Amino acid sequence: MSVTLEIGAVDRLTPEEVTSLLTGTLFRSDRYHHRVRVDSTSRVAMAMARDGAPEGTVVVADQQTQGRGRVDRSWYHHPDKNLAFSCILRPAIAPMQAAQLTLLAGVALAESVAALGVEGATLKWPNDLLISGRKAAGILSEMILQGQQVMAVVIGVGVNVNTDLSDFPTELRQTAISLSHAQSSGLVPLSRSRLLVSFLDYLTDWYRRLLAQGFEPVRQRWLAMASLMGQPVRVMLDHGLITAVAVDLDRDGFLLINHPDRGLFRVVSGDLIAV
């Protein structure tokens, strides 16, 4: 399967280009939804999930105008060069376990990036894919609850695929990177459709493993690809910034850190910054 584009080739995400590549039973051609322009693929997918869209539904957009990251941050999306999509899962899990799906998606994304031949991808808790310390992709998972029952989880993914550094806004040029720019062979355009299908295949495999074997295999694989683990980090919590050592993931997928005064405790939500 070729993952690079020939010079002059058009990298489309239309059903005509993508659905023939979907060979699994979870993410299928009849569950693939392409949009030319949306504010947020996750907003569209959340609405579809509330209306009963089946597990395995995927929403992909050529242009996303209001992509979102954690804590209502915006996600930069370059039309026709980056990849923005969201997918619907309906796992029988407790709400506290939903964070595991973000980590699972990170594992699937890191493995699909490696399959493209892009080396050096690592995962930063809870939802970033880094290359050479720069952010190449982000993941945002959102739940739909009915009482205490998880009705659906929407996993939104944004990947900088073929963006040149000069395309990024000035404030992101020191912290962001694209997959094509990270290749040792230089700036060679990569196929977004092939990356998307590869991700969905890896996600399917890991999702089935999670449902059959629990979180531990995902946890071990995530730790094997993690950045900053065992290192001092600054953690931005609701009540301020602290410095501690990132130690482990707990059984729910939350971060365990060791603080000189507070000892070992877990972080449910926060941002990590390398010291």
Average pLDDT, to the nearest integer?
89
What sort of overall outline do the alpha carbons produce when their principal axes are compared?
A: globular
Tell me the major beta sheet: 7 strands, mixed
Question: What is the total tally of β strands?
Answer: 12
Please give the CATH class of the largest domain.
Alpha Beta
The helix-strand sequence is HEHEEHEEEEHHHEEEEE
CATH architecture grouping of the largest domain: 2-Layer Sandwich
Show unreliable segments: none
Give the class from helix and strand content and strand pairing. alpha+beta
Strand content: 25-35%
Helix content class: 10-25%
Give the domain tally: 2
In DSSP terms, counting alpha (H) and pi (I) runs of 4 or more, how many helices? 6
* End-to-end CA span: 40 Å
What value does the Rg take, in angstroms?
Answer: 18 Å
Strand order across the largest sheet:
1-2-3-7-6-5-4
Summed up:
The chain is α+β, with helices and mostly antiparallel strands.
